[in-house]
Design a protein that fits this description.
By secondary structure, this protein is α/β, with parallel strands linked by helices. It is built from 11 helices and 9 strands. Strands 1, 2, 3, 4, 5, 6, 7, 8 and 9 form a 9-stranded mixed beta sheet that branches. Strand 1, helix 1 and strand 2 form a beta-alpha-beta unit.
């Protein structure tokens, strides 16, 4: 017998959030009780009215609550805005499902997540098998960052990757349930007891790296993270944040807050010296990759300004 509270944070993506709710409606019977807290994160457009109208029109009032936030404080802030109220209540759910608005859940996805946690009591966080609309499988399992892992990620070259295989940020995709260091925040089922043990998401991250930070805090508290292969969730990657995956095209420029979040993660969890070292290792690998691309006339698919902005973020103070 399980109860699940879904938290969706919307910002200027009302149509995507409505489609996500439609997919959730089809799987409500997979648990005893499913309720959604839909946080409207102070969008400057008509998202609030569109969401309110959709909930009324489709008769979702009994299982979807629309919660306008006070400001756009980012992903962690929006989730915490709902979590604080829910964790203070008397009828707490067994699990919280943090779900991006740009996702579509497939039948059986929630049941697989719940079954995984029920079968693995030492695991407090479990992620889904994220897929793109075209059916290709993006990365759904990650290792924690390391110096040699960032060197490999920067150089991205077969022989080096094989040599540093056990340090790679992105391991080979598991075909079955597995443990992970961390999983993407697009779909994470979290025990209520995990939040009670380690606290909420860190709101100093505006967006990105907050789930990595949360999983690291859990690991340091003895709480494991897992991956449920049977939980398939379509992720329209980047459409809610404006950073889209375009296969065979160069990625869009990353926002400054991505670099700030990356720096915050390393400085907070490992210290300023380690943050400097990890940027150095990544930069050495990245420069080697660019030289190889130039010499052999290979295309560059990296976001514009990636090296420059990474090095700039290494030395600038973080926003308060």
């Amino acid at each position: 017998m399980s109860s699940v509270e879904v938290i969706i944070v919307n910002y200027r993506s009302a149509q995507l959030a409505i489609a996500c709710l439609e997919s959730l409606e089809a799987i409500r019977n997979e648990v005893d009780r499913l309720h959604v807290s839909l946080v409207e994160n102070c969008s400057p457009d008509d998202s609030l009215e569109r969401l309110r109208h959709a909930i009324l029109e489709r008769g979702w009032l009994d299982w979807v609550e629309l919660i306008p936030s006070e400001r756009n404080g980012g992903f962690a802030y929006g989730n915490n805005f709902a979590l604080r109220k829910l964790l203070q209540g008397t009828a707490k759910p067994d699990f919280f499902w943090l779900l991006n608005p740009d996702t579509l859940v497939e039948p059986g996805s929630l049941q697989s997540l719940v079954c995984y946690l029920n079968a693995n009591q030492d695991v407090g966080i479990v992620g889904s098998h994220l897929v793109w609309p075209n059916g290709e499988y993006p990365t759904s399992v990650f290792r924690f960052f390391s110096l040699l892992g960032e060197l490999e990620r920067g150089v991205s070259f077969g022989p080096v990757s094989r040599l540093l295989d056990r340090f790679r940020l992105v391991p080979d995709k598991p075909q079955e349930d597995a443990l992970a260091d961390w999983v993407p925040g697009a779909s994470m089922l979290i025990r209520t007891s995990t939040f009670e043990s380690i606290g909420l998401l860190d709101e100093s991250y505006f967006m990105y790296f907050e789930e990595t930070d949360f999983c690291l805090r859990a690991r340091r508290a003895g709480i494991r993270c897992g991956f449920a292969a049977g939980s398939r969730v379509v992720h329209l990657e980047g459409q809610s944040s404006g950073i889209r995956h375009e296969k065979e095209q160069r990625a869009k420029r990353l926002p400054l807050y991505w670099f700030d979040s990356r720096q915050r993660y390393f400085r907070k969890n490992y210290g300023r010296g380690y943050a400097l070292a990890i940027d150095l290792f990544w930069s050495i690998g990245f420069v080697a990759k660019r030289m190889r691309q130039i010499i052999f006339c290979k295309p560059n698919h990296d976001p514009p300004g990636l090296l420059r902005e990474t090095l700039a973020s290494t030395f600038r103070p973080l926003p308060k």
